[in-house]
Amino acid sequence: MTSPNRRDSASLTRAASQRLKIRAVAGTAMATMAASAYANHRLAKRAERDNPPIGRFITVQGVRLHYLERGTGPALVLLHGNGSMIQDFESSGLIDMAARTHRVIVFDRPGYGHSSRPRGMIWTPAAQAALFHEAMRRIGVTRATVLGHSWGCSVAVALADRFPGTVSGLVLASGYYYPSARADVVGLSVPAVPVLGDVLRYAVSPHLARLTWPAVIEHLFAPRPVPPKFAGFPKEMAVRPSQIRASAAETALMIPRAAAARPRYAALSMPVAILAGAEDRLIDCEEQSARLHEEIAQSSFDRLPGEGHMIHQTATTALMAAIDKVAAPRTLAVA
Known about the structure:
Number of strands: 8
Radius of gyration: 24 Å
CATH class of the domain at 54-181 and 253-334: Alpha Beta
Helix content: 40-55%
Largest sheet: 8 strands, mixed
Distance between the termini: 108 Å
Strand order of the largest sheet: 1-2-4-3-5-6-7-8
CATH topology of the domain at 54-181 and 253-334: Rossmann fold
Structural class: alpha/beta
Strand content: 5-15%
Number of helices: 13
């Protein structure tokens, strides 16, 4: 018969062995996470070397903004969506198309491409609008047509609302304007959470982003196929930890910012062209763009049949036509 002392000793030995196993597993996990974070840091630096800046820099409000400028004529400012950068508009062909008749300025918004995103600021659409207003003034743009795509629409609307004398017309493509139930927002916002988000965006999120990239891009373009011209978009720049944080932060702001902006839409006084893909699988065309058209009296609305979210890529001529339509009143007034 086993004595109580022997049983106690065996229990203590098993407990000690379990603690050692837990420590070993935890140590291995931490080492794996650290190695993953280091690898992603190196990959991010390599992506920046392989995709050097294609434009110029201007420092405004502590933000080092990267922007591209082409063409001459009336000014046109392009603002990209969440997770994107200048190369999205460049690969679409819209920059070259618009530069035939406009002075086109395309910004990497804060945290995207080669633009910095200081952590001491919550980069709401209003905060970004103030940033771009000052940047435009500094580069000699006093009045411009402003085009936003997706999240960039929120910034474009904020710019027009806060600085109406600067914005002669708006082109809003595939925008999100009214709060709605979005189950995807919670999960996609996690990398913006302090500490936990920092760990995830360095050690885990870039790997997940690479794995899901094909499916995500197909979803954005659906029902259209992904066009060959999009192959030039620098994926590795988009999956850097810094850009993942910017994207997550803007995802978290999406619903509350739409709620805050909603009362201001009817006050917009400049010409507004609204475009959306009728089969957009990311943002409902009827609940968002069609509804906005009803609220803004002087707006036009093009519901593009068979198009998805990336209409600047797949319906580029439609966006150029909207730019020309919105810019026409100003051109006639100047003449």
